[in-house]
Design goal:
The structure is a homodimer. By secondary structure, the first copy, chain A, is α/β, with parallel strands linked by helices. Chain A contains eleven helices and 17 strands. In chain A, helix 1 crosses helix 3 and helix 5 crosses helix 6. The radius of gyration of chain A is 20 Å and the shape is globular. In chain A, 52% of the residues are buried.
């Protein structure tokens, strides 16, 4: 087994603004594996606001003992990976091993998991915040081709958040809309805002309170009236160990491969969450078609899919899963089903 | 897709005694599926003391709408199976679909799950109760070829149970021993017996109190000293929904395909149990090599394997997973890896 890593420099079409700040370039890392005539590719997102760096991820990936990488016993290999320090490095190697494994068996991963690719839910397209109201209105109309839109809120000014939601509902009357506060509300603000989100028929509210604000989650659960949109935890979710503390607080969880460490932990989280009655969303970072196509393999198991990370990139080096009429189309090719684009 | 069922009449080598009673014949049902050039076989155990009958299981299996049986989307098919009334009928069709699926993909199931067949734990060989002490001693020596022996207790007389454990430890000093009370103790008896099981180095105690005696489980958890053998729930375990109520009470669960409804729910239980820190045992009923080989596919994920159900049968119609030196050897053949024996 040979392993090599490749630095990506993903250029964003437009600077992406969320409550953490704005960004124009992302430096993810590709992991390439080769064994005999087969090869596999994985992607490690490198997300600055999770305090991850390309240097650190590369360091971990370069120091994986190659003798433990065995796709024949994929489950054992993944369980034994010594990468608990970096979920993103783990994502890179987990994806590459899954891709290689699927290619060796000649099957797409969703097929090896017995999933029907026609069961993918609608994919949400994300609309970042804009300070200028006119720009925001234009952005809404530019995105009207997507049937399901996710509005980023948590601007720090609940009144402004509300104004954006109201505008979106007015301008795009028939669209399915949802909101993501990215943890930008206090519990008190959320208690005011969430009923208003219900009024504007937002199908869910993502991460209303801050990542570690479990008191806030408890307050919402205790004090919100019935009939509210489901509350989906995102920043409060990391890996497998983060699911159980959210049972009874959130209505669902957003699973991201970069945060949980790849497809194996994601699948464990799915089983665990379903057993506890949680709804499921699959999310992404700013990632190329490698990581997006990996996440898309799990889409048939999801209630919501937020897999637009590659649509934001000008120079995606791969093609794979793609969006058509707002729905994910899974590639009919082995492993992750991705192909390098011509330079 | 064609489905046919076949009645089995499994003859036991010796009448099998547990705290429920004795039995000499079992009438399980085989499910045969055929699609194009591939076929699959599954087995529904029919366990009288679970109030299941061959008539009922056959009825359910004959009324499965064939149009929903689709191995390409195995996960969907299994999720949609309308068989919540009979976990054993469900086991039959779940196993047959998995076998067919594995054959279509040309891979053993453990390989499709990425499991290393060399990681199977020791298999326990079960020694039933005997009223006559001399017969019991002979039985112990007849089973000395197996490194791990499970002693059935719960005779109704704790003193007699203890006598059998003492004799087993004396006669088979170096063997690994464990006990199964089959729910035959009251909580008070269990509080006395379990520390004695520790003295005799039993590696676990299975189902000390009755199936529905959750007060008993709580008493044990509260009142047992530290350093006791792990308590494994068996009768208290049914399907996926039965795992969470045992968290914090039992140290582990015994998963049986006939009780949970096949390999799909078993795999969900595994993920769920591990996430909650439970140990895992895979168990069986009196079953042919079809069901035993199915359960054996999961053995690499287990701490303990109690898969001797086929060793008790005189006329096993199939061969598949087999025991060698007390360990399960998984067949290197697609699907369940079983083969019909010559008549």
């Amino acid at each position: 087994m040979q392993l090599s890593i490749e630095q990506l420099k993903l250029e964003l079409e437009v600077p992406f603004k969320i409550s953490y700040g704005a960004t124009t370039v992302r430096e993810n890392i590709l992991v390439h594996l080769k064994e005999g005539k087969f090869s596999g590719v994985g992607e490690a997102a490198v997300v600055p606001y999770y305090n991850e760096t390309t240097a650190r991820v590369s360091h971990y990936l370069k120091h994986i003992p190659l003798e433990i990488l065995n796709t024949e016993f994929l489950e054992d290999t993944l369980r034994q990976l010594p990468l608990s320090e970096s979920s993103m490095a783990k994502q890179g190697i987990d994806l590459a091993l899954h891709d290689l494994w699927g290619k060796q068996l000649g099957q797409p991963l969703y097929r090896l998991w017995g999933l029907n690719p026609d069961n993918c839910p609608l994919v949400s397209f994300t609309i970042g915040m804009e300070e200028d109201v006119k720009t925001y209105r234009e952005k809404l109309h530019d995105s009207a081709q997507y049937p399901l839109l996710k509005l980023k809120l948590g601007s720090g000014d609940p009144d402004y958040d509300l104004k954006m939601v109201k505008m979106a509902r007015t301008e795009l009357g028939d669209h399915i809309l949802c909101v993501d506060a990215n943890g930008g509300w206090s519990a008190e603000e959320a208690l005011t805002m969430i009923p208003k989100m219900a009024d504007y028929e937002m199908i869910f509210v993502e991460q209303p309170v801050a990542k570690a604000d479990f008191d806030g989650w408890r307050t919402l659960r205790k004090s919100l009236p019935v009939g509210m949109p489901p509350l989906i935890a995102d920043e409060s979710v990391q890996g497998v160990e983060s699911v159980l503390p959210l049972v009874g607080l959130a209505d669902g969880i957003n699973i991201k491969l970069a945060k949980c460490g790849g497809l194996r932990p994601a699948r464990q989280m799915i089983t665990l969450a379903r057993a506890h009655g949680l709804q499921l969303m699959i999310g992404c970072m700013v990632e190329s078609s490698v990581a997006i196509s990996a996440a898309a393999q799990l889409a048939p198991l999801m209630d919501y899919a937020d897999l637009d990370g590659n649509l934001l990139i000008r120079n995606d080096p791969y093609s794979g899963a793609k969006m058509e009429n707002g729905r994910m189309i899974l590639p009919d090719a082995p492993g992750l089903g991705v192909k390098r684009r011509a330079e």
